[in-house]
Specification:
mainly alpha; about 200 residues
Length: about 200
């Protein structure tokens, strides 16, 4: 048993210092940043398409109740506001070229990380409440045209989807986003340190 402890102690002392060149790190970081920018842009496009899809209801459905118009307005407005917030977040990571000045981009990445945290925590709940209120007002008139079992099914599926997105899906997205941004920040800190060492 003592031999095993000695081997374990020797193994713990043995560290491998892997040196990756700044160029290789920049290439990997470039792929990661490009992927993050693309996902952010696709998210914005998806939200913009959602605005048009919900607004199209006004053109294809002749709503007679004020609550329906108010509900659709709230839904469109909440999606539009959230889209603007997503766009402002996207600009933080897309306005600088990280290869020219990694330190500036690193600072912007930290700002982006903070903004994403706010987006998923405080701002998300305003978005969910506004969407739920808009849907409730919209359903007030619409559900009268369906049978009782279909009304219940529509309500359960709609609000069940909101609960699912607000709990399980939101937590998974937050965790993945946090890990991805933290890893990228770590890479840029290493790149910055390597540039300082070579100077």
């Amino acid at each position: 048993m003592q031999e095993f402890d000695q081997i374990e102690a020797l193994w713990a002392k043995h560290t491998v210092d892997v040196k990756i060149s700044a160029d290789d790190m920049l290439k990997q970081a470039k792929k990661d940043v490009s992927s993050m920018r693309t996902k952010s842009l696709l998210n914005i496009i998806g939200m913009a398409l959602s605005i048009f899809a919900v607004a199209a209801i006004w053109f294809f459905y002749d709503a007679t109740s004020i609550s329906t118009h108010l509900g659709i307005s709230i839904i469109v407005l909440s999606i539009a506001v959230y889209t603007v917030i997503l766009y402002n977040n996207h600009r933080v990571i897309s306005q600088n070229d990280f290869t020219e000045n990694p330190n500036t981009f690193l600072q912007n990445l930290k700002i982006y990380q903070l903004q994403r945290h706010q987006l998923y925590n405080r701002l998300y709940w305003f978005y969910v409440v506004a969407l739920s209120a808009g849907m409730a007002l919209y359903f007030f008139e619409i559900l009268h045209y369906f049978e009782l079992w279909l009304q219940i099914l529509i309500l359960v599926l709609s609000f069940g989807w909101i609960v699912f997105c607000s709990t399980l899906l939101r937590k998974a997205v937050i965790k993945r986003d946090k890990e991805r941004i933290s890893l990228l920040i770590e890479k840029f800190e290493r790149i910055s340190n390597q540039f300082k060492e070579t100077e």
